[in-house]
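your task:
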Amino acid sequence: MTIRLDKNDSAAQKKKKESALELAHNKIKALEEAKIKLKQKLARLEAISKKEEKPYFLWHLFFRDIFGKKKDSEIGFDIVIANPPYGVDVDKSIQEHYGLGKRDSYGVFMSMALKKLLKPEGHLCYIVSDTWLTISSHFQLRQQILDCHHLQKVIRLHGDCFKATVNSCIVTVQTTAASKKHNSAEIKVLAADLTNLSTRKNIAEFRDKLFHLEEYVGTSTPEFAVYEYVQDLLEISTNQPVIVGSPKLFLLLDEINCLKNREVIDGKSIEIRETNFNDKNLKLIDLETIIPRKRERRFG
């Protein structure tokens, strides 16, 4: 658009054109300043890329050969291995960006790897707090994994692994290829409880179980236990807890296939779930319907 001042313009027309010219000049000036700042940022990034030590992890810059590929099926890493920080709350904006119910940093690292870092059919292998397995505030994280990907292994570890306030677990997940339909009824989860095997005092036995878990499926002893079940078992409870235990325990969590009735307890009408467990008919109730939960436990 061309703006010209004419001697025959009225005072109002002249003022309007002068305002338009000033606005255009301001926009041009802002664009020139933005261009200078962009060049400065590019220069800094180029300098960082040439340094041996990097101040932070910019995967799109440092791995341009991986994330610059044209096919979606080739973009991303084959495997991401990490021990992300936990017990640190991220900004609420980051929590919302990744669609999580809890601000704990390790949940963000897990979600980010699945959504941004891994290629289709890539593998995540993390050591994290085991609180994400069951607590309700990590439901969204479990949902992201179970609804879209294959939860391959969950291995609960002894408390002396890191000597932290919470116990840790190893989790491996395989992302689903866009061309394949995710079917949790056809894929299996291997769940191992090694919480009684010290990672420091029983090193040989711990390593043997860790590296040969498949050979111990179905074994349950006071020291360790290894189980295997189809992933869709985790969907029979609305909270979708990841149980590291016998598949029979899922009968106690079943909220879909069980028989439901109501009974009056302490003057309240309470929903009762009935299930057959070890040839015995059990009646199950949610204690929160009788004793309201005031506050979620910090560590599950």
